[in-house]
Amino acid sequence: MRRYFGRKLLVYALTFAVAVTVNWMIPRFMPGDPVASMLARANVSQPQAVEAMRTYYTNLFGLDEPLWRQYLNFWGALFRGDFGTSIWVFPTPVSTVIMGAVPYTLGLMIPSVLLSYFVGNRIGAYAARRKLLDNTVLPVGYVLTATPYMWLAVLLAWGLGVVAGVFPVAGGYSFSIRPSLSADFLLDLLHHWVLPFFSLFLVALGGWAIGMRNMIIYELESDYSNYLSALGAPQRLIRRYAFRNAMLPQITGLALQLGVLVAGALVTEIVFAYPGLGSLILKAIQNQDFFLLQGIFLFIVLGVLIANFVIDIVYVLVDPRTRTGMAGASA
Amino acid sequence: MSLRVTDLRVHYKTLKGDVRALDGVSFDVGDGEILGLAGESGCGKTTLGKSLIRMDGRMRHVGGKVELDGEELPIGDDRRMNPFRFHKVSLVPQYSMSAMNPTRKIGRMVGELLRSRGVALDQATLESRLDLVGLPREVLQRYPIELSGGMKQRMVMVISTLLDPSLLIADEITSALDVSTQKSVATALAGFRESGVVKSMVFITHDLSLTYQIADTIMVMYAGKLAEKAPAKTMVEAPRHPYTKLLIDSLPEVGVRHTERRLAGIAGSPPSLLDPPAGCRFRDRCPLAFDRCAQEPPPVEVEPGHVVACWKADA
Amino acid sequence: MTALQEVATRKPPASASVRREALYFALRNPKLLIGAAIVLLFLLAGLVGPLLVSATPNEYVGKPMDPPSSEYWFGTTTFGQDVFAQFVHGLRTTFLVGVLGGGIAAIVGMMVGFVAGYRGGLVDEVLNMITNIILVLPALAVLLIINAYLGIRSVGAQALFIGLTSWPWAARAIRAQTFSLRGRDFVDLARLSGANTWKIITREIGPNMSSYLLLTFILLFGNSILIASSLDFIGLGPTEGVSLGLMLQNASQWSAMQLGLWWWFIPPGAAITAIVGALYVANVGLDEVFNPKLRQT
């Protein structure tokens, strides 16, 4: 088990290092003087801001120093929690801007991912080897997984928001309300949350249902299922075992899907102008705010790595074999 | 008579037509008898084993019947067959290495299995059975992956026989084990018969020498039909069917010394069971084949307990 | 294991008969047929459609916000662009990104998977580590950074980077398959007869899992289309030309929902869903064709 976690942590550490290195390297691949071109591309109106940024960037990039020093400085700044300053909302530090958006993204992602995961797995397990249900779950599931996240979001916003007028289609809360802990505000928050949540939930649902269905069928054909059948055990017991064992690859599957789920959340937020990281990315791109973009990138990577680690821990808790130390999960 | 199989026909449904995996097989197994079932792969021995307990989806019971302790087994009817499974007929499968749920502690799995069949777990019986096969009681607290191959095999044997079935089918159970483990597993299996846990047993294997060590009677099948059935000693020392003779000759050691003789495989391969030719199915490979083999040779009891399906059995 | 399989393998495994059998099942598999038909239909629309419309996709041709009519089948945008013209040109881009991105990912995945699976040992360890790292990195986030900084705005470059970030799961799957083939007789035979690694991989192992590779490519193809559409939607799509994702971005950016211009945002999304969904379903069908165990008798 120690070896299992050791290996995982090594991969995560290396991944983070790669992400940071990419982050450091990319601006240096930009043609010409990165500082000048960044300033030129940035939409900054205040002249004093431009000057402040020039000194700031030159210092930060430390372009007169040798490369390895620049690289180390970059890491140093990172460990001090210094992600640079946003151009779009100059001079707010990037980390502050991101922190303002993170709760919205997490508030959207965590419930939708977990709920779609549990509901999808249940549906898939239930459909497997039940002809009638299978014939409906399977096509619907495939259509849902094939749906681009933003398209379903657009459809829901249009249908339930614009046409039916049941839900608001933009923002995290109404402009007329000031954020506070009042019931009014929370209700308004919830009201704005429903559609993006539901959109994320639906698209992810299909994939889990299909994955579980296929895994269950595989497990129902496994040797232990056959043995139990030969001994006349009821389907109920066999299915229960199959479900439990099929969950294991599905947990690994959740880890593998994290990147896709994050991407889905980002574009869904953009559709609903939901004030999370996705909308922030759009702003950063539109305003050529590269520091903000880089900060968001590192944040997403970090978030995905942490989520991966949590999933690893869950896996160990669920699969006895990793605990006995006889075999590690290969994933 | 514990098990009586009469003219059993089981086919596999395929897109090209029916594969006649079992094409009219009759035999008896007496109380306390261990029947060794041997033959090349594809001869129908595994199909026979499956037919006696649980057919897979593509198998069809086409004809003949199976009686156990005077009661007919509804082998073609999965649901009606269920009450017999585990209680009356049980199986030690060839996939014993992976027959236990990998994510349940063995003891818990056994408990859940028994409860699902409406039987309370009798801890004392379970422990005495573990002693019988020489497994420590701690295995119940372990996951299958923590056991060695031989231990898993013996654990599955214990599980399968917990309800004292009348008939136990052991299907190629030793093929995944090394030679020394093979022997101890076979001995443990015979122990179940000695202690009266199971009444009779069908021991399926392609390994004639191993069969000889534990079986009372050996039955050799060829291409979906019975070729020869005889007491173990007779089968090895005085086989009558040319196929059996060749099979015995091709073994390195079966109690008899064969030091001088070369190992000889049997040239050719069995006919397709999709549309088998009329007459004796071994004809094309048989060194003794003659005109009459174009007609199918019926199984004939040449001496008490010795059945041969060959026109030249008397020779 | 069963008598049936043994009987089946006894026949000489002539590759021609295997292929004929695959074709037999392929022509009788509704999932494969329906899936393939839908994909081909859209491909055809993408190939022929642009020849039928005279307008270039971004040209202002008619009255703004016109609903679908006999003149403009899919109506017009807020600027009076022909949505149908954009749609058929967008289909081209989508297929191009799918083929290029999926193809590049498949090639990288095969290289890494074959070499890691066949060589094993330290090579495997290193490649595995690299694969795992890229697997954990969220692809879209990486693409965001790369595209934004380097200003990548051509379909080809977009596909290249999508391909370079989406191969890891394919590599892992192929590695596992290769690993199981490595010990087979025919590979041993080739090794004994002095074939080098490259030859063994391309002549023995590759052809033996060609069906599996095809399935992998189809999934990568669909995946690549989805990633590209997300990138386009965020605003990192190709600047010249159109794509289905770009259409969705424009529709969203210019408030098509609020204005009720459903003809602007429904066709591109529906096409992506249909193509990718059909690819997935066809993939399941193909799997059943190649893998007799999955066939329902």
UniProtKB/TrEMBL annotation, chain A:
<feature type="transmembrane region" description="Helical">
    <location>
        <begin position="190"/>
        <end position="210"/>
    </location>
</feature>
<dbReference type="Pfam" id="PF00528">
    <property type="entry name" value="BPD_transp_1"/>
</dbReference>
<keyword id="KW-0472">Membrane</keyword>
<dbReference type="GO" id="GO:0055085">
    <property type="term" value="P:transmembrane transport"/>
</dbReference>
<comment type="similarity">
    <text>Belongs to the binding-protein-dependent transport system permease family.</text>
</comment>
<feature type="transmembrane region" description="Helical">
    <location>
        <begin position="254"/>
        <end position="276"/>
    </location>
</feature>
<keyword id="KW-1133">Transmembrane helix</keyword>
<dbReference type="InterPro" id="IPR035906">
    <property type="entry name" value="MetI-like_sf"/>
</dbReference>
<feature type="transmembrane region" description="Helical">
    <location>
        <begin position="140"/>
        <end position="170"/>
    </location>
</feature>
<dbReference type="GO" id="GO:0005886">
    <property type="term" value="C:plasma membrane"/>
</dbReference>
<feature type="transmembrane region" description="Helical">
    <location>
        <begin position="296"/>
        <end position="318"/>
    </location>
</feature>
<protein>
    <submittedName>
        <fullName>Peptide ABC transporter permease</fullName>
    </submittedName>
</protein>
<keyword id="KW-0812">Transmembrane</keyword>
<feature type="domain" description="ABC transmembrane type-1">
    <location>
        <begin position="102"/>
        <end position="311"/>
    </location>
</feature>
<feature type="transmembrane region" description="Helical">
    <location>
        <begin position="9"/>
        <end position="26"/>
    </location>
</feature>
From TrEMBL, chain B:
<dbReference type="GO" id="GO:0005524">
    <property type="term" value="F:ATP binding"/>
</dbReference>
<dbReference type="InterPro" id="IPR003593">
    <property type="entry name" value="AAA+_ATPase"/>
</dbReference>
<dbReference type="GO" id="GO:0015833">
    <property type="term" value="P:peptide transport"/>
</dbReference>
<keyword id="KW-0547">Nucleotide-binding</keyword>
<keyword id="KW-0813">Transport</keyword>
<protein>
    <submittedName>
        <fullName>Dipeptide/oligopeptide/nickel ABC transporter ATP-binding protein</fullName>
    </submittedName>
</protein>
<dbReference type="InterPro" id="IPR017871">
    <property type="entry name" value="ABC_transporter-like_CS"/>
</dbReference>
<dbReference type="Pfam" id="PF08352">
    <property type="entry name" value="oligo_HPY"/>
</dbReference>
<keyword id="KW-0067">ATP-binding</keyword>
<feature type="domain" description="ABC transporter">
    <location>
        <begin position="3"/>
        <end position="248"/>
    </location>
</feature>
<dbReference type="InterPro" id="IPR013563">
    <property type="entry name" value="Oligopep_ABC_C"/>
</dbReference>
<dbReference type="Pfam" id="PF00005">
    <property type="entry name" value="ABC_tran"/>
</dbReference>
<dbReference type="InterPro" id="IPR027417">
    <property type="entry name" value="P-loop_NTPase"/>
</dbReference>
<dbReference type="GO" id="GO:0016887">
    <property type="term" value="F:ATP hydrolysis activity"/>
</dbReference>
<dbReference type="InterPro" id="IPR003439">
    <property type="entry name" value="ABC_transporter-like_ATP-bd"/>
</dbReference>
TrEMBL record, chain C:
<protein>
    <submittedName>
        <fullName>Peptide ABC transporter permease</fullName>
    </submittedName>
</protein>
<dbReference type="InterPro" id="IPR000515">
    <property type="entry name" value="MetI-like"/>
</dbReference>
<dbReference type="GO" id="GO:0005886">
    <property type="term" value="C:plasma membrane"/>
</dbReference>
<keyword id="KW-0472">Membrane</keyword>
<dbReference type="Pfam" id="PF00528">
    <property type="entry name" value="BPD_transp_1"/>
</dbReference>
<dbReference type="GO" id="GO:0055085">
    <property type="term" value="P:transmembrane transport"/>
</dbReference>
<comment type="similarity">
    <text>Belongs to the binding-protein-dependent transport system permease family.</text>
</comment>
<keyword id="KW-1003">Cell membrane</keyword>
<keyword id="KW-0813">Transport</keyword>
<feature type="domain" description="ABC transmembrane type-1">
    <location>
        <begin position="91"/>
        <end position="285"/>
    </location>
</feature>
<feature type="transmembrane region" description="Helical">
    <location>
        <begin position="212"/>
        <end position="236"/>
    </location>
</feature>
<feature type="transmembrane region" description="Helical">
    <location>
        <begin position="32"/>
        <end position="53"/>
    </location>
</feature>
<dbReference type="InterPro" id="IPR050366">
    <property type="entry name" value="BP-dependent_transpt_permease"/>
</dbReference>
<keyword id="KW-0812">Transmembrane</keyword>
<dbReference type="InterPro" id="IPR035906">
    <property type="entry name" value="MetI-like_sf"/>
</dbReference>
